[in-house]
Amino acid sequence: MTDVRPPAVSADGGVLHTLFRSEQGGHEQVVLCQDRASGLRAVIAIHDTALGPALGGTRFHAYASEEEAVLDALNLSRGMSYKNALAGLDHGGGKAVIIGDPELIKTEELLLAYGRFVASLGGRYVTACDVGTYVADMDVVARTNKWTTGRSPENGGAGDSSVLTAFGVFQGMRASAQHLWGDPTLRGRKVGVAGVGKVGHHLVEHLLQDGAEVVITDVRAESIERIRSRHPQVQVAPDTGSLIRTPGLDVYAPCALGGALNDESVPALTAKVVCGAANNQLAHPGVEKDLSDRGVLYAPDYVVNAGGVIQVADELHGFDFDRCKTKAAKIFDTTLAIFARAKEDGIPPAAAADRLAEQRMADARRG
Q1: Coil, strand, or helix at residue 362?
Q2: Nearest CA to 75 among 3, 135, 21?
Q3: Which is nearest to 354 in space by CA: 55, 75, 83?
């Protein structure tokens, strides 16, 4: 489970100051974790539990400073509150970060120590995979607590969540087509997919089955070859810059790194729809208005890529793929509702999504 929203908190004024500023998140609890024996240094941030226990993944990353790690945990946990709310889950938002290069310091001892900190919260925080952590890691973490998801099927989990993530993005794309062109299909449309790895290659399969013309790009030659070997009709752009300038492109699907929509890329877009699996696609506040001003329909990333969190949440109740797929299919209706709210309020879809999520959390607080 990965990051979902643009930064809400910056280093200006210091980390501690930001913890208590409601306009920058108003987090309920932030836990600093340290285990000298294993070398663990981690931060667990619980943003909001109005809807239920906080749910969000564990990121393992070599942060430049402890302050940077805390700020990342704050931003990511806030984003999970919004993502879980619009996914219709009975979960609030939380996130954890482990400080250090996972290639150098990740050990079983460290993961077990981290799991004990998760256990100490008594179920207020439920963890899962994120950047730098994998299903095998969650299997280890789960040995010390019962609030770990994203485990392997052999250990009672659901395994890889990329299948339902891609399915949810496809539903968001169908909703975008319905809203803009009056028909919930990509048949005959040209779709550019930037990043065809774990999620992107599943998305390409959905698009081809739906009759779309697909153009792809990826920094990894093996990822492109995997698709081209099965679907030689798929076109390849040399890089993302070339992809977004493709003549006749109807839909742009960023499925790689965050910040894909920025001051350089937005003016160059030829597509009329942006809908992809990447997290934090808006490089900074204001980009959503730039898209709207250019007549580009933006399907908010944290709405359409919620299939993964739907899956790991379901794992807590005994994973059932068909049940999860039914829930992920509702991303179509949620996306349409966001577009309708945006039109009614005269605001960009990203702002409308925020309002809907905030309304659900506020209603829950009122009981």
Answers
A1: helix
A2: 3
A3: 83
H/E stretch holding 260 reads: none
Token representation of residue 307: 């299939």
Q: What is the C-alpha to C-alpha distance for residues 105 and 93, in angstroms, rounded to an integer?
A: 27
Q: How far apart are CA 257 and CA 266, in angstroms?
A: 15
- The pLDDT of residue 161 is 87
334-367 pLDDT, tens per residue? 999 999 999 999 999 999 999 999 999 999 998 7
Count CB-CB contacts under 10 A for residue 88.
17
Contact between 3 and 94 (Cβ < 8 Å): no
For residue 277, give the nearest of 312, 251, 235, 306 by alpha carbon.
306
Whole-angstrom distance, CA of residue 204 vs CA of residue 129: 23
Q: How far is CA 52 from CA 251, 307, 353, in A?
A: 36, 19, 20
Task: Give the separation between CA 178 and CA 160, rounded to whole angstroms.
Answer: 29
Annotated binding site: 195-200
**Binding site residues for NAD(+), as ranges?**
195-200
Query: What amino acid positions are annotated as catalytic residues?
Result: 95
Say if CB 107 and CB 137 are below 8 A apart: no
Say if CB 212 and CB 186 are below 8 A apart: yes
SS3 assignment, position 332: helix
Question: SS3 for 163?
Answer: helix
8-74-123 Cα angle (round to 5): 140
Reported residue count of the chain is 367
Distance (Å, whole) CA 187 – CA 209: 9
Give me the domains of the chain, ranges plus CATH numbers: 15-83+91-154 (3.40.50.10860), 162-306+335-357 (3.40.50.720)
Question: CA 64: distance to chain centroid?
Answer: 23
- Structure tokens belonging to residue 203: 């998305």
**pLDDT tens, 140-187?**
999 999 999 999 999 999 988 899 999 999 999 999 999 999 999 999
Strand partners, 215: 192, 235
